[in-house]
Amino acid sequence: MKVGKLNWDDLKEIIDNNKSVKRKDVRISNGIGEDCAVINYGDYECVVSTDPVTGADENIGKIAVNINCNDIASCGVEPVGILVTILVPPTATLEDIKKIMMEIDEETKKLNVEILGGHTEVTEAVNKIVVSCTALGKGKALSAISTRGAKTGDDIVVTKRLCIEGTSILVNDYEQRCRKVLTDEEIKLAREYVNDISVVKEGIIAGNYKVNAMHDITEGGLLGALWEMAEGSNLGFEIYKEKIPVSEITMKLCNEFKIDPLRFISSGSMVIITKNGDELVRKLKDENIEGAVIGKITEAKGVLIENNCKIEVRPPKRDELFNIN
């Protein structure tokens, strides 16, 4: 099998055929494109999500905390706690584990998230360090936003710039190759991208604004996230390539590595579906968060418009990170 997430059809078949129990207290059940489950507890509800970090060698602890808390924030809810599992090969050192836990502690302090527990193990079952986290959030009953809530005519908003996580991974794990196309100053700036990987702030802002749907952009990039959201809502979308925010540093790296930035891992950016995108962008700007309206939700299939040409967006495949030669 190819490295990366399972393709959409295979994953959907596995989930659909292996989910026998349906509980009344589970208000939103996770599935394709729905990264969180929401459990009702009377006046409040608990939002839960889990994700591993497998594609990075540096900043693993920082990335692990943020991608999981980002999932919680994509429901418009504040994350409150995290469980951490660390699996390391026998070649790892105790210092490696201490460094990861130091990163995790630093990030949880920034987000006011408590480390609730977890598991640490040295095992021959892995050949590199794997960190997997489960994050929990708390909100008032019926407050959590579903990924599947898009409506026809809604605006599509993207926060910050695409490929924040992907750019950070490239410059840390492939530094010498990156230096072929980036200056020393650009390398320094690209390393700092990882500091913008959280979308908790914009998630909570959008949640209070009562948007219709949100999705943090992870593996599969923007097009993967939009495909999952549209498929979950039984709708389509039209987006304009020239409106999609990508930094010049990221574009240089994408050209060097022959990567499509629209299908490249992009934790640090959120897709937000709302009735009035321009108003939301203004609210985000008031909090020093970049935002751009890049298109609309439609009745038909997903379409990328480039130079007045409409290109149909196909189901997401593995992330561009795993296609690097």
Question: Which SSEs are present, and which pair or pack?
Answer:
Elements: H1 8-17, E1 26-28, E2 37-41, E3 44-53, H2 60-73, E4 78-88, H3 94-111, E5 114-122, E6 130-140, E7 155-159, H4 164-173, H5 175-178, H6 184-191, H7 200-209, E8 213-216, H8 221-233, E9 236-240, H9 248-257, E10 270-274, H10 277-286, E11 291-298, E12 302-306, E13 309-312
Parallel strand pairs: 4-5, 9-12
Antiparallel strand pairs: 1-2, 2-3, 3-6, 4-6, 7-10, 7-11, 8-10, 9-11, 12-13
Helix pairs in contact: 2-3, 2-7
Task: Please provide a written account of the structure.
InterPro entries: HypE (IPR011854), PurM-like_C_dom (IPR010918), PurM-like_C_sf (IPR036676), PurM-like_N (IPR016188), PurM-like_N_sf (IPR036921). Belongs to the HypE family. Pfam families: AIRS, AIRS_C. The protein has helices spanning 8-17, 60-73, 94-111, 164-173, 175-178, 184-191, 200-209, 221-233, 248-257, 277-286, and strands spanning 26-28, 37-41, 44-53, 78-88, 114-122, 130-140, 155-159, 213-216, 236-240, 270-274, 291-298, 302-306, 309-312. By secondary structure, the protein is α+β, with helices and mostly antiparallel strands. The protein folds into two domains: 15-140, PurM-like, N-terminal domain (60s Ribosomal Protein L30, Chain: A, 2-Layer Sandwich); 155-323, Alpha-Beta Complex (Phosphoribosyl-aminoimidazole Synthetase, Chain A, domain 2), CATH 3.90.650. A seven-stranded mixed β-sheet has the order 8-10-7-11-9-12-13, sandwiched between helices. A six-stranded mixed β-sheet has the order 1-2-3-6-4-5. Strand 12 and strand 13 (309-312) form a beta hairpin. Helix 2 (60-73) runs parallel beside helix 3 (94-111).
